Amino acid sequence: VEGEISIAGPGEQRRVQCIPVRWKKELVAVLTREAPLAVGGRRHGQLERIYVEIFDRLARMISSGEFPFATEDAPTAESPRVGDGVVILDSTGRVEYASPNAVNALHRMGIYTSLYGARLDEIGVEETAIQRSFHDGVPVTEEIERHPAVIVLIRSIPLLEAGQVTGALVLSRDITDLRRRDRLLLSKDATIREVHHRVKNNLQTISSLLRLQGRRLPPGEGRVALWEAERRIRSIALVHEILSRDPTEQAAFNDIVDPLVRLAKEGVLSPDRPVRFSVEGDAGEVPAELATPLAVVITELLQNAVEHAFPEEMPGGKERRVRIVLRNDGIVVAVKVHDNGRGLPLGFSIETSEGLGLSIVRDLVMGQLGGSIEMHHDAGTRVELRVPLLR
């Protein structure tokens, strides 16, 4: 429906076009287009006339329930933009009109032939998307890559009348720079993964050398020190192994904790004194710079529990247990390590502890990570860490 209405009083009129919007044959809305009345007999230019004609064709599709298309996805990076080039095709697929932006996009593809009356495949443009949209009656998007390194996004939108395809609206956009940035990001991600992979391999080599060297030493403090160093290096290598699988600089920390638990099981002093480990909760994704020191901290706490928490004989034949509880609220990562062993010695304080393992824990958590650590006697020993995600 089209007519004239007064907006704010006499002498101020607008031309208003009202278009019913239908969905599944039901009227769901009304789309209006308002425009000032022509003054002084101004004539529309070709570009404006063409765009008004396109609007009228789309308006008829809207009123008949043929547009928007039922199969159309939610807006994405491929959705139409104001600066897209416009090509109008007739029912036979021949060019009726090409906007200046569309002509420029074709020029960047090395195509300078006259478009009018020609099919796009006759001038060297791939028509797969256009043919599919004509055949299926739905929008189809395709990227066309031409050398030297020009990529144009083509979106063919069929124009329908009474369910029949009477032409197509073809939108074009040069996305060369966008795809170049995408490829640079992919290259950067691959490089980061390769760096983590090589660091992991180097750390595993160092770990193997320390293990071999430790076997050559006589039993005593020297051998124990090498084995402890080897275990710490293996825990760091585990973090780099996880990071080498993911292009982001984030690590799913539970994927790191599980192999750390297996590492702690290997450190159990005697098969006659087994320790049962359990992991609860979810630490979520943590940054790489936090994952590495936190993995070392958990390794030290688990090893400390294995070596010092449990007596030779558990009272009442109880099972030796170590629980690891993880939590991430988006602000702080919290880790709790709780064993059911003999508990803390009288007067113990982590601030004054001189053991190397707990010194490493204290320095990493409180110094490097800016977190807090608490140790409590609670039917065994309970260690609670809180580390901020953002500093």
Give an account of the 3D structure.
The chain is of the alpha+beta class and 391 residues long. Strand 14 and strand 15 form a beta hairpin. Helix content is 38%, strand content 28%. The chain is elongated. It folds into four domains: 1-43, no CATH class; 45-174, Beta-Lactamase; 177-248; 250-391, Heat Shock Protein 90 (2-Layer Sandwich). The strands form four sheets. The chain has a five-stranded antiparallel β-sheet, sandwiched between helices.
Summary of the model, kept short:
The protein has 391 residues and is α+β, with helices and mostly antiparallel strands.
Distinctive features:
391 residues, alpha+beta, Beta-Lactamase, 4 domains, 5-stranded antiparallel beta sheet, 5-stranded mixed beta sheet, 15 strands, 28% strand, elongated
* Mean of pLDDT: 84
- CA-based gyration radius: 35 Å
Helix content: 25-40%
Q: Please give the number of β-strands.
A: 15
The CATH topology of the largest domain: Heat Shock Protein 90
The CATH architecture of the largest domain would be 2-Layer Sandwich
Sketch the topology as an H/E string, one letter per element.
EEEHEEHHEEEHHEHEEHEEHEE
